[in-house]
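Team,

Forwarding the record for the chain on the shared tracking sheet. I've put the sequence and predicted structure together so nobody has to dig through attachments.
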Amino acid sequence: MTPFQRYIAEEIAVDHADGLLTRREALRRLGLLGIGLAAASSLLAACARDEAPPASTGPDTPVSPPPGTADAIPAGEVTFPGPDGRTLRGAWVDAADPRGGVLVIRENKGLNDHIRSVAGRFAGAGYSALAIDLLSEEGGTASFADPAAATAALSAVPPERFTADLEAAVDELSRRLPGLPLEAVGFCFGGGMTWLLLASGEPRLATAVPFYGPLPEGADFSGSRAAVLAIYAEKDQRVNATRDAATAALERAGLTHEVVTFPGADHAFFNDTGPRYDPAAAAEAYRMVLEWFGQHPG
């Protein structure tokens, strides 16, 4: 099992432990990852909580509009050249007078309406945005009727393909926005992809913002020049286990960085369509990201 496969499997187990998935559904999703019943049952038991699952806001609880939505611009579908003659898919949003371009890297659920909306919010704030579909080779996220099957397909992709596709997305941003600073923002699995892109030595990013993303093993950021704002959540113990290693890797590379942990928040707190959404933390994180972009224009 690759590190990212393990991350996805553990995320399913934690969702079950928090009461977000029934045992049957968790076992089904783990089975789609190729994990047998005995191993899946052991994983669920290992992640079980002694106490009751924490209360969460939930998508049905009335809250203020998600940060940036008032000025958001609708995203349109786009294709662009990928490695080895492949065609990549994504969502593109033009800012009216762009100050830069943002590569938006989605969660393990694929390129969905939530991530399209995030791209639209960045465009409304002055940063043209490209949200990449890392399942382009499989026909795109929309080709999967079952979101869990899309996640399983994603887990089978080799890291080398992720890196090549992400670098092709940076190529596309550079082509569309010549001379402007480029940023990368990723959430959950996409946060891990943001770390992976930095570890690839991609030199064109002015800034990078991984939201609660797992650090790739042996990550070395010495080829990057990006200013990194790393965002974590206090309750997200699983991803927080790699926070010190990420900080050390940033320091070894000599990159400008800030590591922020939001008190009381949990994994995926920025996702306003999910059960762990924290509107106050999301609003503050969004403010910090835009401020970070402005402070580090490349």
